[in-house]
Design a protein that fits this description.
8 helices; mainly alpha
Length: 271
């Protein structure tokens, strides 16, 4: 079910419309655990003593890794298939342009509802006996992410909200892989993958976001300077048209003066 352009878009309404998707994901998660649980237990027992204690972690990280990878792929497709109106990693010119009158395409509607449903089921899954009990930090993370996505939708900030989620989601599958390698004690890979995850986390969530902010501030300053220059030119042109200011110097009236005025003392003709 999708939120159309005429549907209510308040914060609470966004959460309510994502409930069917969250229920469907919880049902799918339960079926996934039924298929994986005993197979994972058998595999961990074969690996040796002490590995079976990681059974809940393995099941949860496999689910989280697959789900986050799917969301990352769908979000990347929406960004680079033209559904996000020039708001992606290499071009952010359209992220805010035209706000708050952004067109809500059905694909972005459906994708946002999927994101909301995913984080809603991640927040409440332990209440239904699915997965581990969350710590306060993870519960806060899911709740804040859910709130920001709903706020992004209710304020018609779908473009920049989708791009921000994609950037912050880039390292989540790698995080799940790193945790799985650590639990299974796969020594040739667990440390390099963790270092790769840490480097990717620093590059995307710290360096890239900081660079975007710096570029945006620079672009905003340059845009203001251009607007001031245009305002100054408009004032000069207006003064050159007026008989009261006909004695302005040729240098002051130079921008926009007809070439013939440079050879005569006649009133400038603005072109």
């Amino acid at each position: 079910m999708m939120l159309g352009p005429g549907a209510p878009s308040s914060f609470v309404t966004c959460i309510a419309w994502s409930l069917p998707g969250a229920i469907a994901l919880l049902s799918l998660r339960a079926a996934f655990y039924l298929l994986l649980y005993e197979r994972a237990r058998f595999y961990l027992r074969r690996r040796g003593t002490g590995y079976e204690c990681y059974l809940a972690v393995v099941c949860e990280e496999v689910w989280e890794g697959l789900g986050s990878s799917l969301l990352l792929a769908l979000t990347g497709w929406a960004l680079y298939a033209g559904h996000n109106s020039h708001c992606h990693l290499t071009d952010t010119s359209g992220c805010i342009q035209g706000w708050p009158y952004h067109h809500r395409s059905p694909s972005l509607d459906a994708l946002f509802l999927m994101l909301l449903a995913w984080y809603l089921q991640s927040t409440v899954k332990h209440w239904f006996g699915l997965g581990r009990v969350q710590g306060s930090d993870v519960a806060l993370h899911h709740a804040v992410t859910l709130a920001l996505l709903a706020l992004s939708y209710s304020l018609d900030l779908l473009r920049i909200g989708l791009l921000a989620h994609w950037v912050f989601q880039l390292t989540v599958p790698l995080h799940s892989v790193s945790k799985l390698l650590h639990c299974l004690d796969i020594r040739p890979l667990k440390k390099p993958v963790f270092y790769l995850y840490a480097a990717a986390f620093l590059a995307t969530r710290v360096c890239l976001v900081s660079a975007w902010v710096a570029v945006d501030l620079h672009s905003t300053g340059a845009g203001r300077a251009r607007m001031e220059d245009r305002s100054t030119d408009a004032v000069l042109h207006s003064r050159c048209r007026s008989n009261v200011h006909a004695r302005l110097s040729r240098r002051e009236c130079h921008p926009g003066i007809h070439p013939a005025f440079a050879r005569s003392n006649a009133m400038p003709v603005i072109v």
